[in-house]
Amino acid sequence: MSELSETGMATRRRVLGADHVARAEAQKTPFDAPFQALITDAAWGHVWSRDTITPRERSMMTIALLAGLGNDGELALHLRATSNTGASRDDVIEALLHVAIYAGVPRANHAVKMAKDIFAEADAARTPA
């Protein structure tokens, strides 16, 4: 594994959580291994590992872009990752307000509903039954 790949994996674990990364790695096949290597190096090693902006800021940008593009699966992943990036729920709604203005109300409306559901799940998981 190259230094870039090691940096990427460490950042990926820090942002998405070690359990998520372990599950993704366990599901990796020879078919998708080149793709996994690409995103580990490019997204996590090159972009997410830069120190020019904070993980919180990067998280907010990522959430806004994913919501604006309608990439629900990745959006859900990054909404859950806010507990690791320092992006607050207030930060998320601010990002989604920008989505409404610059990418469209329907996309933002859907993303707000997703965020509410994901945050409610997180709250329920933390509350003893």
Domain count, please report it.
2
Q: Please tell me what the overall shape is.
A: globular
Report the total helices: 8
Low-confidence stretches: none
CATH topology of the largest domain: AhpD-like
Q: Output the CATH class name of the largest domain.
A: Mainly Alpha
Radius of gyration: 15 Å
Tell me the layout of helices and strands.
Blueprint: H1 3-16, H2 18-27, H3 33-47, H4 55-69, H5 72-80, H6 82-85, H7 89-102, H8 105-126
Helix pairs in contact: 1-2, 1-3, 4-5, 4-7, 5-8, 7-8
Could you characterize what this model shows?
- This protein is an all-alpha fold and 129 residues long.
- It folds into two domains: 1-51, no CATH class; 53-129, Up-down Bundle (AhpD-like), CATH 1.20.1290.10.
- 80% of the residues lie in helices and 0% in strands.
- It contains eight helices and no strands.
- It has helices at residues 3-16, 18-27, 33-47, 55-69, 72-80, 82-85, 89-102, 105-126.
- The radius of gyration is 15 Å and the shape is globular.
- The chain starts with a helix and ends with a helix.
- The mean pLDDT is 96.
List keywords for this structure.
mainly alpha; 129 residues; 8 helices; globular
Question: Summarize this, please?
Answer:
By secondary structure, this protein is mainly α. The protein has eight helices and no strands.
